[in-house]
Design goal:
Largest sheet: 5 strands, antiparallel
Number of strands: 5
Order of helices and strands: HEEEEE
Strand content: 35-45%
Shape: globular
Number of helices: 1
Length: 90
């Protein structure tokens, strides 16, 4: 596994932990709660990469994204300001 793959995997685990979802078993959770309604949303993927935080505007190479199925939103987690922001989908 490459260094960037390990970093991305850790960023995904950190994001899930910040959401209160344990990923210690090696099996990632398949849903997360919607912050507005509490309805469970299906996770389609967790990824990390270079991005600018919409909250603090810091550019980081370890921002994490969690994609959900139901409404095409992304959850953006910033390691700099420790904020999680829901982004509208396309």
């Amino acid at each position: 596994m490459s260094t960037s793959s390990v970093r991305w995997a850790q960023a995904g685990r950190d994001t899930l932990a910040a959401l209160g979802l344990a990923a210690s078993t090696g099996a990632a959770p398949s849903t997360i709660p919607c912050p507005a309604t509490g309805v469970r949303l299906s996770i389609t993927g967790v990824d990390a990469g270079l991005a600018t935080c919409p909250s603090c505007e810091v550019r980081t190479d370890s921002a994490t994204f969690v994609a959900v199925v139901e409404d095409l939103r992304l959850l953006f987690a910033c390691p700099a300001c420790q904020q999680m922001t829901w982004l509208s989908g396309a």
